[in-house]
Amino acid sequence: MKKVLPFVRFGLFVFAFAFITLGSRSQPVYAAGAIRDNPGFNGSFLPANDDGSTGLVNIGFSINFYGTTFPQLYVNNNGNVTFDQPLGTFTPFDLTSTGRKIIAPFFGDVDTRTGNVTRYGQDTVDGRPAFGVNWLNVGYFANHVDKLNTFQLVMVDRSDIAAGDFDFEYNYSQIQWETGDASGGSGGFGGVPVRVGYSNGSGVAGTFFELGGSAISGALVDGGSNALISNSLNSNLIGRYLFQVRGGQVQDVPVSAVSIPCLANPTATSVVGNSPFRTQAYYEPGNLAPGVFVNPGDYWVLGVDESGEYYKIIIACQYLWLPVGVMQPNYDSVWQGRPLPTDVVDGTSPGK
Hints:
There is one protein chain. This protein is mostly beta strands. The chain has two domains: 231 residues, no CATH class; 93 residues. Helices cover 0% and strands 39% of the residues. It is built from no helices and 22 strands. The strands form four sheets. Strands 2, 7, 8, 9, 10, 11, 14 and 15 form an eight-stranded antiparallel sheet that branches. The protein is globular, with a radius of gyration of 20 Å. The two termini are 39 Å apart.
């Protein structure tokens, strides 16, 4: 596909929502950065390019990703690896409906014709074989290096548990841009922003995932509501998102950012409230969402259920419920402690 700069810039004026994490209840620890500095991950490189890919490269071990074993993959310049064929697409597409087999720590329009290039290779992590891809201080299309992103994919062999088992990490230390010029962006923002997630390409429920904040302008960059460097997943290190694959299945699959149609809009009476604690979420009032915990942060609050015991909230187009006692007004400069809504709203989810 030929890359053409749009004649008209456009922006997505959307609300950004807070991030969901699963699993461990331990408090995160703050560190200088989640990026692993293994020298082997810099052993090979993609020459300076725009939208390029490697040929098949050896992972160093075989992985079982949703029932298919892969000993090799393609490293794609635009923030992802694929298993079926190289991917030169620069405008990120929906990872929850794609037919591609993809693992994407930052699916956006990386341009390395100026500045640093994409590097990859084999090393070890905690004594186990590992494969890493480094996008360190990379710019965006077209030839921009005024803003730079640093992120990493690390895959770790866990055949000590069972053949084909592995972990993969998305690691981040700086995310200053989200969109290339040819995806409707201007100055690295707006247009069709970055997506983060994975898919096995089948479209079967449970075989794909997008991180909350994907495709939402301003959400995943530094300082955004879902800033990649300020959150974590299944890890106590801020900026690290850990996925464990056992028997071919990703364990504790998080709530997808777009698991339902994006029709969840704030109403005229809804406000942004604050949850100061990591809290167990509910699919419906009284119906726990096992393993789903909402991080401390700000959330759109639509109203309460008929009992007045739960607030209905929106997170990246997903409706969830939190006990009334864990929410409080948001005292930032915009919301200034505005009282939370008392309107009674529908007690079912999703989409009503």
